[in-house]
Amino acid sequence: MAARRTLLARLRSAPQAVAIGLAVVVVVIAAVASALLRPGSGGAAAPADDGKAISAAPRPTGSASPAVRTNPSPTPPTVPDSIQHQPETAGKNVNITIDDGPDPKWTPRILQVLRRHHVHATFCMIGPQARANPALVKQVVADGHRLCDHTVHHDTGMDKKTTAYQSSEILGALDMIEQASGGARVYYYRAPGGAFTPPSRALAAQHGMRPLGWNIDTKDFDRPGVSAILHTMKDEIHNGPTILFHDGGGNRGQTVQALDKALTWLRQQGYGFSFPKVD
What we know:
Blueprint: H1 2-37, E1 93-101, H2 106-117, E2 122-125, H3 127-132, H4 134-142, E3 146-149, H5 163-181, E4 186-189, H6 198-206, E5 210-211, E6 216-217, H7 226-236, E7 242-246, H8 253-268, E8 272-274
Parallel strand pairs: 1-2, 1-7, 1-8, 2-3, 3-4, 4-5, 6-7
Helix pairs in contact: 2-8, 4-5, 5-6, 7-8
Protein backbone atom coordinates (compact mmCIF):
# COMPACT_ATOMS: atom_id res chain seq x y z
CA MET A 1 0.00 0.00 0.00
CA ALA A 2 2.87 2.41 0.89
CA ALA A 3 4.57 1.67 -2.43
CA ARG A 4 1.40 2.59 -4.30
CA ARG A 5 1.16 5.94 -2.51
CA THR A 6 4.81 6.77 -3.41
CA LEU A 7 4.22 5.97 -7.09
CA LEU A 8 1.14 8.19 -7.21
CA ALA A 9 3.10 11.11 -5.64
CA ARG A 10 5.87 10.80 -8.27
CA LEU A 11 3.34 10.82 -11.09
CA ARG A 12 1.63 13.92 -9.71
CA SER A 13 5.03 15.83 -9.44
CA ALA A 14 6.23 14.90 -12.96
CA PRO A 15 4.57 17.83 -14.80
CA GLN A 16 6.18 20.30 -12.37
CA ALA A 17 9.65 18.81 -12.91
CA VAL A 18 9.24 18.94 -16.68
CA ALA A 19 8.18 22.58 -16.50
CA ILE A 20 11.23 23.49 -14.39
CA GLY A 21 13.51 21.64 -16.80
CA LEU A 22 12.08 23.46 -19.80
CA ALA A 23 12.50 26.83 -18.06
CA VAL A 24 16.18 26.09 -17.36
CA VAL A 25 16.75 25.19 -21.03
CA VAL A 26 15.11 28.44 -22.21
CA VAL A 27 17.30 30.52 -19.87
CA VAL A 28 20.48 28.81 -21.10
CA ILE A 29 19.57 29.33 -24.79
CA ALA A 30 18.80 33.02 -24.17
CA ALA A 31 22.15 33.55 -22.43
CA VAL A 32 24.10 31.91 -25.28
CA ALA A 33 22.30 33.97 -27.92
CA SER A 34 22.95 37.19 -26.02
CA ALA A 35 26.67 36.45 -25.77
CA LEU A 36 26.95 35.70 -29.48
CA LEU A 37 25.23 38.91 -30.52
CA ARG A 38 26.99 41.25 -28.06
CA PRO A 39 29.19 43.86 -29.96
CA GLY A 40 32.86 42.89 -29.94
CA SER A 41 32.13 39.23 -29.19
CA GLY A 42 33.09 38.05 -32.65
CA GLY A 43 29.60 38.01 -34.12
CA ALA A 44 28.33 40.23 -36.94
CA ALA A 45 28.28 44.03 -36.38
CA ALA A 46 24.94 45.50 -35.50
CA PRO A 47 23.42 47.28 -38.49
CA ALA A 48 22.68 50.98 -38.42
CA ASP A 49 19.17 52.27 -39.02
CA ASP A 50 19.80 52.35 -42.77
CA GLY A 51 20.95 48.76 -42.80
CA LYS A 52 24.64 49.62 -43.30
CA ALA A 53 27.32 48.51 -40.90
CA ILE A 54 28.39 51.14 -38.37
CA SER A 55 31.92 52.37 -38.98
CA ALA A 56 34.19 54.79 -37.16
CA ALA A 57 33.47 58.46 -37.84
CA PRO A 58 35.98 60.14 -40.18
CA ARG A 59 38.56 62.44 -38.58
CA PRO A 60 37.56 66.09 -39.02
CA THR A 61 39.61 67.94 -41.62
CA GLY A 62 42.16 70.26 -40.08
CA SER A 63 42.37 68.53 -36.72
CA ALA A 64 45.53 66.96 -35.43
CA SER A 65 46.96 65.75 -32.20
CA PRO A 66 49.48 68.08 -30.60
CA ALA A 67 52.86 67.41 -32.13
CA VAL A 68 55.49 65.64 -30.07
CA ARG A 69 58.99 66.17 -31.41
CA THR A 70 60.82 62.93 -32.05
CA ASN A 71 64.35 64.31 -31.77
CA PRO A 72 64.30 67.75 -30.17
CA SER A 73 67.42 69.86 -30.34
CA PRO A 74 68.91 71.49 -27.23
CA THR A 75 66.95 74.35 -25.70
CA PRO A 76 66.66 76.92 -28.51
CA PRO A 77 67.40 80.61 -28.00
CA THR A 78 64.50 82.93 -27.31
CA VAL A 79 63.50 85.02 -30.32
CA PRO A 80 60.71 87.55 -30.88
CA ASP A 81 57.48 86.29 -32.44
CA SER A 82 56.88 89.34 -34.65
CA ILE A 83 57.21 88.84 -38.41
CA GLN A 84 60.66 89.90 -39.56
CA HIS A 85 61.60 91.56 -42.85
CA GLN A 86 64.70 93.57 -41.99
CA PRO A 87 68.30 92.48 -42.63
CA GLU A 88 70.62 91.84 -39.72
CA THR A 89 73.36 93.86 -41.40
CA ALA A 90 72.80 97.61 -41.35
CA GLY A 91 72.94 99.58 -44.57
CA LYS A 92 71.64 99.05 -48.08
CA ASN A 93 71.14 95.29 -48.00
CA VAL A 94 68.61 92.73 -49.20
CA ASN A 95 67.69 89.24 -48.01
CA ILE A 96 67.43 86.55 -50.67
CA THR A 97 64.99 83.82 -49.67
CA ILE A 98 64.36 80.57 -51.57
CA ASP A 99 61.14 78.60 -50.94
CA ASP A 100 59.58 75.15 -51.38
CA GLY A 101 62.66 72.97 -51.79
CA PRO A 102 64.99 71.35 -51.65
CA ASP A 103 64.60 69.92 -55.13
CA PRO A 104 67.19 67.46 -56.49
CA LYS A 105 67.27 69.17 -59.90
CA TRP A 106 66.84 72.86 -59.17
CA THR A 107 68.38 73.44 -55.75
CA PRO A 108 71.90 72.52 -56.97
CA ARG A 109 71.53 75.04 -59.81
CA ILE A 110 70.34 77.73 -57.40
CA LEU A 111 73.35 76.95 -55.20
CA GLN A 112 75.67 77.32 -58.18
CA VAL A 113 74.28 80.78 -58.94
CA LEU A 114 74.62 81.90 -55.34
CA ARG A 115 78.16 80.51 -55.17
CA ARG A 116 79.15 82.33 -58.34
CA HIS A 117 77.92 85.65 -56.94
CA HIS A 118 79.26 85.01 -53.41
CA VAL A 119 75.78 85.50 -51.96
CA HIS A 120 74.20 83.73 -49.02
CA ALA A 121 70.47 83.06 -48.87
CA THR A 122 67.78 81.64 -46.60
CA PHE A 123 66.21 78.37 -47.77
CA CYS A 124 62.63 77.85 -46.57
CA MET A 125 62.22 74.09 -46.79
CA ILE A 126 59.17 71.85 -46.83
CA GLY A 127 59.66 69.04 -44.33
CA PRO A 128 59.19 65.98 -46.58
CA GLN A 129 61.37 67.57 -49.27
CA ALA A 130 64.16 67.97 -46.74
CA ARG A 131 63.72 64.41 -45.48
CA ALA A 132 63.89 63.06 -49.06
CA ASN A 133 67.05 65.05 -49.90
CA PRO A 134 69.31 65.12 -46.84
CA ALA A 135 72.50 65.51 -48.87
CA LEU A 136 71.12 68.69 -50.41
CA VAL A 137 70.11 70.07 -47.02
CA LYS A 138 73.62 69.43 -45.75
CA GLN A 139 75.07 71.12 -48.85
CA VAL A 140 72.92 74.20 -48.25
CA VAL A 141 74.31 74.42 -44.73
CA ALA A 142 77.88 73.70 -45.84
CA ASP A 143 77.67 76.58 -48.33
CA GLY A 144 76.88 78.97 -45.49
CA HIS A 145 73.16 79.45 -46.10
CA ARG A 146 70.48 79.42 -43.41
CA LEU A 147 67.50 77.10 -42.95
CA CYS A 148 63.86 78.04 -42.54
CA ASP A 149 60.84 75.89 -41.62
CA HIS A 150 58.15 76.05 -44.34
CA THR A 151 55.84 73.38 -42.79
CA VAL A 152 55.01 69.82 -43.75
CA HIS A 153 52.29 70.22 -46.38
CA HIS A 154 52.54 73.88 -47.48
CA ASP A 155 48.91 74.41 -46.51
CA THR A 156 48.11 78.05 -47.32
CA GLY A 157 44.85 77.72 -45.40
CA MET A 158 46.42 76.50 -42.17
CA ASP A 159 45.57 79.76 -40.40
CA LYS A 160 41.90 78.68 -40.56
CA LYS A 161 42.62 75.35 -38.87
CA THR A 162 43.19 74.30 -35.30
CA THR A 163 46.25 75.24 -33.30
CA ALA A 164 47.00 71.53 -32.92
CA TYR A 165 47.11 71.19 -36.70
CA GLN A 166 49.35 74.25 -37.02
CA SER A 167 51.64 72.83 -34.37
CA SER A 168 51.95 69.49 -36.17
CA GLU A 169 52.77 71.29 -39.44
CA ILE A 170 55.48 73.45 -37.88
CA LEU A 171 57.11 71.02 -35.47
CA GLY A 172 56.86 68.10 -37.88
CA ALA A 173 58.79 70.02 -40.51
CA LEU A 174 61.27 71.27 -37.92
CA ASP A 175 62.10 67.69 -36.95
CA MET A 176 62.53 66.64 -40.58
CA ILE A 177 64.77 69.58 -41.46
CA GLU A 178 66.95 69.22 -38.37
CA GLN A 179 67.41 65.50 -38.93
CA ALA A 180 68.16 65.95 -42.64
CA SER A 181 70.73 68.65 -41.88
CA GLY A 182 72.46 66.67 -39.18
CA GLY A 183 71.29 69.01 -36.44
CA ALA A 184 71.88 72.44 -37.99
CA ARG A 185 69.90 75.30 -36.53
CA VAL A 186 66.63 76.27 -38.22
CA TYR A 187 66.61 80.06 -37.86
CA TYR A 188 63.20 81.02 -39.24
CA TYR A 189 59.61 79.94 -39.78
CA ARG A 190 57.74 81.11 -42.88
CA ALA A 191 54.02 80.35 -43.06
CA PRO A 192 52.83 79.14 -46.49
CA GLY A 193 51.17 82.02 -48.28
CA GLY A 194 51.73 84.20 -45.22
CA ALA A 195 49.16 82.19 -43.21
CA PHE A 196 50.55 83.28 -39.84
CA THR A 197 48.51 83.27 -36.64
CA PRO A 198 49.48 84.57 -33.20
CA PRO A 199 49.69 80.99 -31.81
CA SER A 200 51.81 79.75 -34.74
CA ARG A 201 54.19 82.71 -34.44
CA ALA A 202 54.51 82.16 -30.70
CA LEU A 203 55.18 78.43 -31.19
CA ALA A 204 57.88 79.10 -33.77
CA ALA A 205 59.55 81.67 -31.53
CA GLN A 206 59.50 79.24 -28.60
CA HIS A 207 61.53 76.86 -30.76
CA GLY A 208 64.06 79.50 -31.76
CA MET A 209 62.57 80.31 -35.18
CA ARG A 210 61.85 83.92 -36.08
CA PRO A 211 58.67 84.33 -38.16
CA LEU A 212 59.80 85.48 -41.59
CA GLY A 213 57.79 87.46 -44.10
CA TRP A 214 58.72 88.93 -47.48
CA ASN A 215 58.48 92.32 -49.17
CA ILE A 216 58.94 91.35 -52.82
CA ASP A 217 57.28 88.34 -54.41
CA THR A 218 59.01 88.00 -57.77
CA LYS A 219 56.12 85.79 -59.00
CA ASP A 220 58.70 83.35 -60.31
CA PHE A 221 56.55 80.46 -59.13
CA ASP A 222 54.08 81.19 -61.95
CA ARG A 223 56.88 81.10 -64.58
CA PRO A 224 55.93 84.37 -66.32
CA GLY A 225 59.29 84.57 -68.07
CA VAL A 226 62.76 85.69 -66.98
CA SER A 227 62.18 89.31 -68.01
CA ALA A 228 58.87 89.48 -66.12
CA ILE A 229 60.48 88.09 -62.95
CA LEU A 230 63.23 90.68 -63.14
CA HIS A 231 60.75 93.48 -63.87
CA THR A 232 58.67 92.57 -60.80
CA MET A 233 61.71 92.62 -58.54
CA LYS A 234 62.97 95.94 -59.87
CA ASP A 235 59.52 97.50 -59.72
CA GLU A 236 59.01 96.44 -56.10
CA ILE A 237 62.54 96.90 -54.75
CA HIS A 238 61.41 99.87 -52.66
CA ASN A 239 58.83 97.71 -50.84
CA GLY A 240 61.51 96.35 -48.54
CA PRO A 241 64.58 94.15 -48.36
CA THR A 242 63.30 90.55 -48.31
CA ILE A 243 62.97 89.02 -51.78
CA LEU A 244 61.16 85.75 -52.53
CA PHE A 245 62.26 83.16 -55.10
CA HIS A 246 61.53 79.41 -55.38
CA ASP A 247 63.61 76.28 -55.92
CA GLY A 248 60.71 73.81 -55.62
CA GLY A 249 57.19 73.29 -56.87
CA GLY A 250 57.92 72.61 -60.53
CA ASN A 251 60.26 73.68 -63.31
CA ARG A 252 62.45 76.44 -61.90
CA GLY A 253 64.56 77.04 -64.98
CA GLN A 254 63.30 80.64 -65.24
CA THR A 255 64.13 81.24 -61.60
CA VAL A 256 67.72 80.08 -62.07
CA GLN A 257 68.23 82.52 -64.94
CA ALA A 258 66.33 85.36 -63.28
CA LEU A 259 68.21 84.98 -59.99
CA ASP A 260 71.53 85.18 -61.82
CA LYS A 261 70.50 88.42 -63.51
CA ALA A 262 68.86 89.79 -60.36
CA LEU A 263 72.01 89.38 -58.26
CA THR A 264 74.07 91.16 -60.92
CA TRP A 265 71.56 94.04 -61.08
CA LEU A 266 71.33 94.37 -57.31
CA ARG A 267 75.10 94.72 -56.99
CA GLN A 268 75.11 97.33 -59.77
CA GLN A 269 72.54 99.28 -57.76
CA GLY A 270 74.78 99.24 -54.72
CA TYR A 271 72.95 96.58 -52.69
CA GLY A 272 74.69 94.19 -50.39
CA PHE A 273 73.34 90.85 -49.18
CA SER A 274 72.38 89.82 -45.66
CA PHE A 275 70.30 87.37 -43.69
CA PRO A 276 67.01 88.41 -42.09
CA LYS A 277 67.44 89.62 -38.54
CA VAL A 278 66.69 86.91 -35.98
CA ASP A 279 66.60 88.68 -32.59
